[in-house]
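chain below, 229 aa
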Amino acid sequence: MKRSLTQLPRPAIAPSLLASDFAHLADEIARAREAGADLLHVDVMDGHLVPNITIGPVVVEKVRACTDLFLDVHLMIEEPARYIKAFADAGADHLTFHSEVVVDGPALVGRIHDLGCTAGVTINPDGPWERFIATVPHVDMVLLMSIYAGFGGQKFMPEVLPRIRQIKAMLRPEQRLEIDGGINPETVAPAAEAGIDTFVAGTAVFRAPGGDYRRAIDDLRRRAAEAAR
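prediction:
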């Protein structure tokens, strides 16, 4: 049974597996869960839409087998419609696609819902705004990139903050607003103040000082909650 996006708290912290130690992936996932992660963010890259290559459905299936956390799968791929079923079958709870590569976003959202997953749309900082906006009313969660998709460890782009406020004003109460890119103790507060409620954090969690994942997650959550008041 798919996990429910509506059950996640606000704010929610989503450690990004891209920054974890893949040689010990099951242990990393267990540590993140024990440290208080609300969900896991899984970056899927195909070497076409973005220059990097990461994982596919087989790895998502293995991740699903070792955790009950909500799996937030970000499809940074040129043909998301071709692979949504494979990722849904592998255990993804939520599938986000890029508006840059989808002509009919609402139709793809419908297909994702038919597979039992919640759906999201995202856009790079310089992506096609009109196509993205047309899809926003249909999704369960909007993901805003605060870096250019494709590599972890990039710096947060503060110029996305006005865009966050613009999108937040468009959303219904049940829709969520997620951010990915450069989220750390310094950037989580301005993002939360602008309207973000779900925070993807890779380096800030999996490469936290002293390996203290709990302290890193608690700190991000506290700063986000305080800024959102």
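The first strand starts at residue 12 and ends at 15. DSSP finds nine helices and eight strands in the chain.
thats it, cya
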